[in-house]
Amino acid sequence: MFSCNNDEDNLETELIGKWKLIEVLADPGDGSGTFEPVRSNKTIEFKSDGTLTTNNSLCDPYSDEMISSGTYENNTITTGCQNPNIATISFELKNQYLILNFISNEGYSQKFEKIN
Question: Each residue of 40-54: pLDDT tens digit?
Fold first, then answer.
């Protein structure tokens, strides 16, 4: 008998739920940037059907477009935003935090903590 450990299923199980923005990394372009605490009420909720919603815009901080839902698959969020820098956002779970990594010359990421 074989036992399968599907890491993708484990990732999805950990990902499902609501996450609150707690820190932002904005690198000045030399690799010296670090995550800094922010006051924010921004949340993202990942659902088991491959969709997500936010109480803010997925297009923020690069656009004023107000798109509050998208889809996710294979560590990538598809936003529907017109700006190519935020049309897709890569993400990872790291030390029980959700990290969104935006396309940026200098480096810009958001760190979220699971709240339920």
Answer: 999 999 999 999 999
pTM: 0.86
Q: Which residues lie closer than 8 Å to 73 by C-beta, 6 or more apart?
A: 50
Section 90-101 average pLDDT: 95
Q: Which two tokens stand for residue 49?
A: 């059907």
Based on the number of CB atoms within 10 Å of its own CB, is 37 exposed (0-12), middle (13-18) or buried (19 or more)?
exposed
Distance CA 21, CA 62 (A): 17
Domain count, the chain: 1
Instruction: Tell me whether residue 1 is in a domain.
Output: no
